[in-house]
Amino acid sequence: MKIIAFIVLCVVSAAAGKYDKVKITPDMASIYVYHKGKAVKVHRIQDTKHKLTGEYARVYRPGKDIQPIKMHKDIQTIAEVELLKFMKTKGNKKKGLLVDLRPKTAYQKESIPSAVNIPAKVKDNKAKVEKILKVLGAKRLADGSLDTSKVMEVAFYCNGLWCDKSSEFIKVFLALGYPADKMYYYRGGFQMWKILGFTTVTN
To answer: Terminal CA-to-CA distance of the chain, rounded, Å?
Structure first.
């Protein structure tokens, strides 16, 4: 029994060591999250010479402004470490949902593990928004008000620091009565996730 435990410990230690070169925090090299029913190991790219290429390597977007760190006085803005904690403690336990607001084609090509896609343009479709609210645990009462006593926590992200899809979507949810303390704004979005070399998945 002791031999088996030792072998398991060695395997776990070796796996952890594989991602120790470029860590997430001094105490965290990787985490596991569930994406469409499968466990995905989230870590950072270990190649210290890795460079970002493609769309998310661009630093300028015509007609796009940098988004403020605080998009609303009651909404908590989070960064990568907080998002990972949310994914692990809320998402994995089905108490929270990570939402990718980019277009479906972008989501299908690549996304943050565990994220589900709700294209931001859906906010203009009242019927679809009602369905989303229902999935998140909200209940429309007979008098037309929204019962949000059992809603899930939601973290929203879009393209990056220059993208307003998340802030606009959150404003719509606030106007509908979704609790501010149940929503999080990942301002860095997919561009910052890519810049930091985190694991991505195809859908």
So the answer is: 41
Q: What is the topology classification, in CATH, of domain 50-195? A: Oxidized Rhodanese; domain 1 (3.40.250)
Integer angstrom CA distances of residue 31 from 20, 40, 72, 97: 12, 8, 30, 17
∠ CA 43-88-128 to the nearest 5 degrees?
110
- 145, 146, 148, 129: which is closest to 137 by C-alpha? 148
- The torsion angles phi and psi of 38, rounded to 5 degrees, stand at -120, 140
Summarised one tens digit per residue, pLDDT across range 126-158 is: 999 999 999 999 999 999 999 999 999 999 999
How far apart, in Å, are the Cα atoms of 51 and each of 34, 159, 195?
Answer: 27, 18, 8
- Predicted structure pTM score: 0.89
CB atoms within 10 A of CB 119: 18
Among 37, 36, 56, 46, which residue's Cα sits nearest to residue 15? 46
Nearest-angstrom CA–CA distance, 29 and 21: 9
Torsion of CA 127, 133, 135, 139, to 10 degrees: -100
**Which two structure tokens, joined as six digits, stand for 182?**
């149940």
Domain-by-domain residue ranges, the chain? 50-195
The dihedral formed by the CA atoms of 65, 70, 73 and 77, expressed in degrees to the nearest 10: 130
